[in-house]
Amino acid sequence: MSRALDTAEHEELRLEILELCREAQPYGANPNVLRAALRKSGNDLSERELITQINYLEDKGLVETQEVINRRLAINRLIVRLTAAGTDYLEGNGPDIAGVG
Q1: Domain contains 99
Q2: What is the CATH number of the domain that holds 11?
Q3: Structural domains of the chain, count
Q4: DSSP string of 19-44?
Q5: Burial of 77 from C-beta contacts in 10 A (0-12 / 13-18 / 19+)
Q6: Residue 80 forms beta bridges with which residues?
Q7: Is there a domain that residue 17 lies in?
Q8: What does the DSSP 8-state code read for residue 62?
Q9: CA triplet 74, 68, 13: central angle to 5 degrees?
Q10: pTM reported for the whole predicted model
Q11: Does residue 19 lie in a domain region?
């Protein structure tokens, strides 16, 4: 795949992750849930690839992550939530952001 197509594919994937996070508001979504939803739309990513894209979006201020731990129940989950800047971006109220579809 050419570099331009690869870049466009990543941009669209990031946009889809943002849309899924918007649907999961206000609670957010676990990366496993995001991966399952992305698979249904034809994007079969590894967990590592998805975390890379989530980290990219977090660096841009569009999502935030929180690790939820309950030692008593042995639960340790990462939750991804859309930020206010992410909502503004999706609604067209913010600036264009390079790297996001």
Answers
A1: no
A2: 1.10.10.10
A3: 1
A4: HHHHHTTTT-B-HHHHHHHHHHTT--
A5: middle
A6: 29, 65
A7: yes
A8: S
A9: 120
A10: 0.90
A11: yes
